[in-house]
Write a structure and sequence with these properties.
It is a single chain. The protein has helices at 10-23, 34-42, 96-111, 125-133, 149-157; strands spanning 2-4, 49-54, 61-72, 77-87, 116-117. The chain is α+β, with helices and mostly antiparallel strands. A five-stranded mixed sheet has the order 1-2-3-4-5. Helix 3 (96-111) links the parallel strand 4 (77-87) and strand 5. The longest helix is centred in the middle third of the chain and has 16 residues, at 96-111. It is globular, with a radius of gyration of 17 Å. The N and C termini lie far apart (49 Å).
Amino acid sequence: MIRTAVVTDVPVILALIRELAEYEKAPQEAVATEEQLRDALFGANPALFGLIAEDDATGEPVGFAVWFLNFSTWRGTHGIYLEDLYVRPLSRGGGHGKALLLELARIAVERGYARVEWSVLDWNTPSIDFYKSLGAVPMDDWTVYRLTGEALAAAGGGGGGH
């Protein structure tokens, strides 16, 4: 049901990313290319890792998870940051999402990582309920900030850093 992504999965991963962007009401923001994904997942220095959920009967990809390593300075070890997890609507309820998350947890435990974490949209109640059912807890005291676009360009090119 769950397997490690291989280079020939890049087109389906990109299609699933675009489906996820539609689901999250931001299709215009999904501008990644196959070349970018191929390099991130399978280039000389891969920094992104992927899992594919397949339908047990057909072997067709029905979902994916992509993740990368983060680091806890307090724990002194890596963790997994789950960037995206998505299961196609017709395959939801079949255990694929749970299997993807459990595989990430298995990888973290096997490698001695301190945690698996991710972000979820406030309105995505089905996913929030699902995550809580696995024992995940919200980090209510934390707010995610993002520097992107013109603000990133100004900060990154404006000097003032040491």
